[in-house]
User: Fold this.
Amino acid sequence: MQIDLSVQNVTKKFKDFVAVDNVSFEVPDGQFFSILGPSGCGKTTLLRMIAGLTEPTEGSIEIRGQSMLGIPPNKRPVNLIFQHLALFPMMNVKENIAFGLKRRGDSKAVINEKVAAILERVDLAGFGDKKVDQLSGGQKQRVAIARCLVLEPAVLLLDEPLGALDLKLREQMKVELKKLQAKVGTTFIYITHDQSEALVMSDHVAVMNKGVFEQIDTPQVLYNRPETPFVAQFVGDNNAWSGRIRQCEDTRAEVETNEGPVFRTKVRENLQPGAEVDLFLRPEAMLIQPDASLSDLNRFEVIVKDILFDGANSRLLAHPLDADTELLIALPQTRQFDYIRENDKIEIGWDEQSGICFPRS
Amino acid sequence: MKNQKRWGLFFFLSPVLLWLALLIILPQIDLLAMSFRMENDQGRMVWSLSNYFNFFDEPIYWLTFVRTAIYSILVTFLTFVIALPVAFYITKVVAPKFQGFLLVLLLLPFWVSELVRVYGWMILLRESGVINHFLTQMGILGQPVEMLYRDSTMILGLVYTSMLFMVVPIVSVLESLDDSLIEAAYDLGANMWTILVKIIIPHATPGIVSGSIVVFMLTLGNYLTPNLMGGKNSLWFTEQIYNQFIASFNWNQGSAFGFLLLVLSSIIVWLGLKLTRQNLKKVVQ
Assistant:
């Protein structure tokens, strides 16, 4: 498989502040690669370095095997879709899309043909003569994508382009973007702070925090086997306990949480008794009123504080009997738990395989 | 109640209305009437178009007129060429905390009167002036050269006087230009020149046009700078008007010239707006 983009040991410093710290990754041809991180983690800086709008302090960036150091953005085979799209308001849709082709010196006939073809592809045929401000949010989005894709870049960079859309449209565009990427086969590098965008669309996701990549993996692995506490908390929701190891053999440990309950959980490495750990548990890993026949479950009782109804994503907000920590528990909408009311006492059980345990650093 | 409100409005508006009527509209009407009158052979004032015919009969008048118009357009263009990079630097390149400082620096020369500023230039440029002194001292010039009283010097002075009126409107339109538009154009393969022509200037057009109108009007109607820096052979149309009023004491001819200048500037501004496809309403906003 051809490597479209290779970033090696890239560091970017602004005076004393290290925005991107020794980041390396490779993206093979045709992949949808996301960089996920909270705002201010350096992801936009990284993207701008790939686009050429900022030069790295150290390290190298290669696109299809060619070093990009010192090459200005107008000479790089990458295109960037800006957060606010940056469509040119003084031009109509067609002129916007033709802008890059004209700069390349294509003939008029070729430009017309390519613009028509790309408009067709993003389902905007016949929109060529519209003004940019006559378009809806989703249409603007597609014009911005078309304006870049028409140049057939090796890599398309996207800087949170869905951020400004309302929720419904965002959900729709997520699916559309993914479909479009599969259709055109261009390598996409997508940065976002929205984990659901990253998980839904990407083949691979890199989780970035404070300028470093915490983990690069498929969305499934990131969600199910996070490698660092940051990833565990940032990707998906998690309930967290602090505690210490009571006993540990190989990959099974007994953890005494600071709130009192003792849980059995799998661990990634053998830990010494007494070692301080953080224990994470997904809301959907907790079973409400588990069947008594299920052995091997960690069981404890909680008091329901609130029912957060949100359709398929409904949760219970609860706290253990003798502690104040808030727990989020997935509430399946199968109607079998409709009887649960606020201040009810219910039993919770979870399988030791679902626990995610890290030694406290 | 409604009546009372109207009277209140009228009361507070009256100084402005009086000002407009007494000091601007009435004198203008009087001048307009005067421009159509002349003294006949019997020494009586009669209605006539001869003041306007005089203008076309004497080549010196309409040649000065055309010259003034062309030089004003040139000054406006030169001011724009210099002001655009300055405005771009202030809004997009320099750190935000220095922006205010730079604008104040631009404003600073306007704290002294135009007369003093022009005399400043004269001290620099005249034959025994500062620049000549340095050039001869350094051996670049064998003997001092008179730099004043040339058309180029006059244009220099006019551009200098008009700079601020071009920079300020361009700064305000460039401030609303999203940086990412420039970056997007750069990313899509444009070089600096295309970014300037395709992105920056189209965006800045309203500011450029309003700045140009102000600079053009000020230059066309400027008397001091052409007179002092251009010398006697500068031939600016305002000087012709001045001469008619003060030297020849021919107020009728002078007011005819005044109205010709008004018509000229209106036509050129109108043409400019048509050519750039702007309308006055949008530009003066």
Notes: The radius of gyration of chain A is 25 Å.
